[in-house]
Amino acid sequence: MTLRCQPTASHFVNGTPFEDEAGAPFDVIYPATGEVIARLHSATPAVIRAALESARAAQAAWAARTGTERGRVLRRAADIIRVRNRELSILETFDTGKPLQETLVADATSGADALEYFGGLAGSLTGEHIPLGADFVYTVREPLGVCVGIGAWNYPTQIACWKAAPALACGNAMVFKPSETTPLCALWIAEILIEAGAPAGLFNVVQGLGDVGAALATDPGVDKVSLTGSVPTGRKVYAAAAAGLKHVTMELGGKSPLIVFDDADLDDAVGGAILGNFYSSGQVCSNGTRVFVHRRIKEAFLNRLTERLADAVIGDPMDEATSFGPMVSARQMEIVKGFIASGTGEGARLITGGRQIDRPGYFLEPTVFADVTDDMTIAREEIFGPVMSVLDFEEEDEVIARANDTVYGLSAGVFTRDLTRAHRVIGRLQAGSCWINTYNLAPVEAPFGGVKQSGVGRENSRAAIEHYSQLKSVYVAMGKVDAPF
Ligand code: NDP
């Protein structure tokens, strides 16, 4: 099973696997066992140059195809991904440690959705006609040129496709750098795009750490940078892009509120809190990690939550019965253990979990703290692990103010049977992606992204088109030129 993990080459450039062993080697580790499953090389300046040059060379001819032709390639790629979903999901599980039960339905399939959706839109990307009496203006929707995508490690296949699909649909080319923790799946997506009919150079993958991302973000030949990552990295990449006045999309971190009113369906609210804290072992940017529960139902909520968490099947991620897997890396596990220690140290009540599980790999127990207060570190900082903080509240105005008291603004959720209240509260929450009576569903048809320090721009939906294209406006005079002299 592990054989497929070692790719033919570290990078994918100009339509083919591409190696340069002069680049610093790094190992890919299967998080469920700690075993090395592949060894890759970081991109050298020569690899980066080759990738950018091939993207530039491919872009103009690609943009000159009709939208329908471009869309057909993307939709074919979506079909191929669906046929290979199981193999891709197994590779994603090796890369990330996420249970196969999840990767089979949430990763390659979500990438295929994006390719299908933007493939369908490609033929309908048009400008408009603006009448001005006898004269008129028309607008042309043009691509930006060469886009750089930089990914986080939690959803490597999905992130590659969420960035590539709108970029390519609009007629751009892309150079994608996966996180060095999870470099494998993007290479396969690149191969599939070629198989689907994309020209060589249209979608390139280069590997490496932050320095490779930084080299791409500062390159004068790059027109746009789209990052999925943490806020600190976002600041650096945004600043680097600003120096060249490049377009940006920033999908960054969060510390999102999930508010459970006392009239909520308790089981649904508990289910939403589980989805919003423990899916992918809590390594999801939009997680509702500050769970505000009305004081009247707090103990009932905690009891039901504890019962449901006892049903988590923790273990071998390749076993489809497993519903909770390891953290992505030893480093991430140590970071999360530090947050758990701070929760206990600052006086939060540990309801369940809190320990590393005694088995190979990077397994932490699903952890719930109650009696968390707004000033505690676990209520302020993004943890990016399976740690839920439950906070009490009594009044609607109070909980809205506390929910908004953060530099982040990625997501928010409300559980209540009172739909008037649900819309009123959601209307006042400072967040880009919100849910009422569910949590963390992100269909490609809906815009996804954050406000405040959680991001700039939107992925998915028609909104993403605005971030991968620009308008040329053309004034057409039908009469004589009326000059003053
Ligand atoms: P990081 O911010 O550490 O890294 C993100 C990517 O940026 C990686 O590929 C990284 O390379 C690269 N990078 C690091 N430094 C630089 C730099 N100076 N210039 C250019 N690129 C750089 O995030 P993680 O990978 O640790 O992912 C977790 C974070 O991502 C969390 O904060 C999470 O909230 C956020 N996230 C946001 C999502 C959203 O849609 N809003 C979705 C998923 C995650 P390398 O890691 O190889 O060094």
TrEMBL record:
HAMAP family: BADH. It catalyses: betaine aldehyde + NAD(+) + H2O = glycine betaine + NADH + 2 H(+). It comes from Actibacterium naphthalenivorans. One of its GO terms (biological process) is glycine betaine biosynthetic process from choline. It comes from the Bacteria. Dimer of dimers. One of its GO terms (molecular function) is betaine-aldehyde dehydrogenase (NAD+) activity. Involved in the biosynthesis of the osmoprotectant glycine betaine. Catalyzes the irreversible oxidation of betaine aldehyde to the corresponding acid. Signal peptide: none annotated. It is an enzyme of class 1 (oxidoreductase). Pathway: Amine and polyamine biosynthesis; betaine biosynthesis via choline pathway; betaine from betaine aldehyde: step 1/1. The active site is at K163 (charge relay system), E251 (proton acceptor), E251, C285 (nucleophile), E459 (charge relay system). NAD(+) binds at G151, A152, W153, K177, P178, S179, E180, G253, C285, E382. Binds 2 potassium ions per subunit. Its cofactor is K(+). K(+) 2 binds at L245, K452, G455. Residues 23-474 form the Aldehyde dehydrogenase domain. PROSITE patterns: ALDEHYDE_DEHYDR_CYS, ALDEHYDE_DEHYDR_GLU. PANTHER family: ALDEHYDE DEHYDROGENASE-RELATED. Its EC number is 1.2.1.8. K(+) 1 binds at I29, D95. This is Betaine aldehyde dehydrogenase. Coiled coil: none annotated. Belongs to the aldehyde dehydrogenase family. Keywords: Metal-binding, NAD, NADP, Oxidation, Oxidoreductase, Potassium. The modification Cysteine sulfenic acid (-SOH) is found at C285.
